[in-house]
Design goal:
7 strands
C-alpha cells in the first residue's frame, strides 16, 4: 500500500512538471508568432501611411536652385514685405512682400484650407502652357509657372490663374508695351514658382531676404510665391482670395518690370499694387491691380 501511494505521488509530480513544460512551450510559440506578425503589421501600416502622394502634373521638373536663362532686362532681386537690404528706385536692391500632405489636388476655386504644408520636396514641376499665344501686345516676355512637389497643388489651375492675371485689362499688359507668353521649355526671362514656406525661406534667404515663412519674394528673374499666402490670403486684404493672388503676382512682376514700392495716396483711395499691403493699408482700400478698368495707373508716393 505504501509503495502504491508513493507511485501515485511520483506520477502526479511528473504530470505536473509535464504540464509546466507544455505551458512554457505554448508561451514560446506565442512570442515567436508575435515577433513575426508585428513587423508584418508595421510594414503594412507603413505602406498605408507613407504611400505615394500626388503633387501636380507638368511637363518637366527642376531643382529649386536652378536659374532661368538670362533674358529679363531687370535681373535685380526683390523680396516683398520681408526684412531685407533694399535699394531705392525701381528695380534696385531686394524687396519682399506640419507637413500634412493630403495627396489630393487643391481646387483653387474653393475656400482655402488653413492646413497648408510647411515642407515640400524642394523640386518643382513645370506647368504645361494654358494658351498657345501670348497675353497683351508689345514686347513678349516668356515665362514659366512651376509648383513645388509635395504641396498638393495642381499645376494647370495655378498656371491658368496666372494667365488670367496677365490677360486682365487692369494688369501690366494695359499699356500695350508688355506681353506675356507661358512656356514649359526653352528660354524664359521670368519664372513664377509656388512653394511651401520652408522652401520660400530657403530660396529667398539665399539672396539675403527674411521671408519668415510668411511672405513672397523675387530673386532675379524668379518670383517665389509662398503657398501659405496663395492658399489663405492676407489678414490685411479683405477682398476675395483670387484678388489677393492677383496682388501677389502683380506686385512681384511689377518689381521685375522695374517698379519700386509705393504707399497709400490718401484715405479711402485704392492702394497701389506696388504698395506692401500686407503691412497695412494706411487708410487705403485693398486693391490688386496696377490700373483701373479705364486705364489709369493707380499710383502712390514712392517709398524706399
Amino acid at each position: 500500500m505504501v509503495g502504491e501511494e508513493r507511485g501515485r505521488r511520483a506520477r502526479g509530480r511528473g504530470q505536473g512538471r509535464g504540464a509546466v513544460r507544455r505551458a512554457r512551450r505554448r508561451k514560446t510559440r506565442i512570442r515567436v508568432t508575435g515577433a513575426v506578425l508585428v513587423p508584418g503589421a508595421l510594414l503594412l501600416c507603413g505602406a498605408l501611411v507613407w504611400g505615394p502622394w500626388g503633387g501636380g502634373e507638368g511637363a518637366s521638373a527642376s531643382a529649386p536652385g536652378s536659374r532661368s536663362t538670362p533674358g529679363s532686362p531687370r535681373p535685380s532681386a526683390s523680396a516683398d514685405d520681408a526684412k531685407a537690404d533694399t535699394g531705392t528706385g525701381a528695380g534696385k536692391g531686394r524687396t519682399a512682400e506640419k507637413k500634412p500632405e493630403s495627396g489630393k489636388r487643391v481646387d483653387l476655386s474653393r475656400t482655402p484650407s488653413t492646413s497648408v504644408p510647411v515642407h515640400g520636396s524642394g523640386t518643382f514641376v513645370t506647368a504645361a502652357p494654358v494658351h498657345t499665344g501670348s497675353q497683351g501686345t508689345g514686347t513678349v516676355h516668356r515665362y514659366r509657372v512651376e509648383v513645388e512637389r509635395g504641396t498638393g497643388l495642381a499645376t494647370r489651375p495655378a498656371a491658368a490663374a496666372v494667365s488670367e492675371m496677365f490677360a486682365d485689362p487692369r494688369g501690366w499688359t494695359r499699356t500695350g508695351r508688355d506681353a506675356f507668353q507661358q512656356v514649359d521649355s526653352g528660354q524664359a526671362g521670368l519664372v513664377i514658382r509656388i512653394a511651401t514656406p520652408d522652401t520660400v525661406d530657403r530660396l529667398c534667404g539665399a539672396a539675403g531676404l527674411n521671408t519668415r515663412g510668411e511672405v513672397n519674394c523675387r530673386v532675379g528673374t524668379t518670383v517665389v510665391v509662398n503657398l501659405k499666402r496663395w492658399m489663405t490670403g492676407s489678414p490685411q486684404f479683405d477682398g476675395p482670395l483670387a484678388e489677393y493672388r492677383a496682388l501677389i503676382i502683380n506686385h512681384e512682376v511689377g518689381h521685375w518690370l522695374g517698379h519700386g514700392h509705393e504707399t497709400c495716396p490718401g484715405p479711402g483711395r485704392p492702394a497701389p499694387a506696388m504698395m506692401q499691403q500686407i503691412k497695412g493699408l494706411k487708410g487705403c482700400v485693398a486693391n490688386a491691380w496696377p490700373y483701373t478698368s479705364e486705364g489709369t495707373y493707380l499710383r502712390g508716393p514712392s517709398v524706399p
